[in-house]
Specification:
The complex is a heterodimer of chains A (115) and B (110).
Chain A (H helix, E strand, L loop, with lengths): L3 E4 L2 E4 L5 E7 L5 E8 L3 E10 L2 E4 L6 E7 L2 E6 L8 E8 L9 E3 L3 E5 L1
Chain B lengths: L2 E4 L4 E4 L4 E3 L1 E4 L5 E7 L5 E7 L5 E4 L2 E4 L9 E3 L8 E9 L2 E4 L3 E6 L1
The chains are: A mainly beta (115), B mainly beta (110).
Chain lengths: 115, 110
């Protein structure tokens, strides 16, 4: 199994509070991603990173920010949590040897509830 | 643009039945295609992959063939087991961005 750890695994927070989710990898992969999973929507990309301090927005980035100061860590911050951000969040990593489109490996997920 | 469409679920089968889950995609260039499986409370696990046209990915009795002419990557298994009950996602990677279908839940009854 790929070395990906998400923390926390579960969190309940109040509306309006900031929340940070952490993804830590031990694989030294270049690419890291944050997805949210909601019933009926599959996985939707929030933000991704293609290197240290190199990040870009995904399709549902509003209300989220990310940072990647080290290869192994990718942080997702909900600046002011809302009930619509209640979801399961997944981190994924991938590498791209010789430009090939390789697979992604996923963490176990973080279940976030905003009350 | 890039997108993945897979059949709606849930799919309910009896043990030892034949499984097909349809997946079609839209993409520019030469994407890689994947099937992932998700068990309750867990992350997505790679089931199989194909990196170019006419490649067949296979694993644990599951197979899928990358058909560029029909832009499809249908998942098949000849004889399902109760333990195959899970949610299956079709996905593509194009220029290091992944696109997922909405998932198909499979229920296998003994």
């Amino acid at each position: 199994d790929a070395g990906i750890t998400q923390s926390p695994r579960h969190k309940v927070t109040e509306t309006g509070t900031p929340v940070t989710l952490r993804c830590h990898q031990t694989e030294n992969h270049r690419y890291m991603y944050w997805y949210r999973q909601d019933p009926g929507h599959g996985l939707r990309l929030i933000h991704y990173s293609y290197g240290v301090k190199d990040t870009d927005k995904g399709e549902v980035s509003d209300g989220y920010s990310v940072s990647r100061s080290k290869t192994e860590d990718f942080l997702l911050t909900l600046e002011s949590a809302t009930s619509s951000q209640t979801s399961v969040y997944f981190c994924a990593i991938s590498e791209s040897p010789s430009g090939l489109n390789t697979e992604a490996f996923f963490g176990q997920g973080t279940r976030l509830t905003v009350v | 643009g890039n997108s993945v469409t897979q059949m709606e679920g849930p799919v309910t089968l009896s043990e030892e039945a034949f499984l097909t889950i349809n997946c079609t995609y839209t993409a520019t260039g030469y994407p890689s295609l994947f099937w992932y499986v998700q068990y309750p409370g867990e992350g997505l696990q790679l089931l199989l992959k194909a990196t170019k046209a006419d490649d067949k990915g296979s694993n644990k009795g599951f197979e899928a063939t990358y058909r560029k002419e029909t832009t499809s990557f249908h998942l098949e298994k000849g004889s399902v087991q109760v333990s195959d009950s899970a949610v299956y996602f079709c996905a593509l990677n194009n220029f290091n961005k992944f696109y997922f279908g909405s998932g198909t839940k499979l229920n296998v009854k003994p």
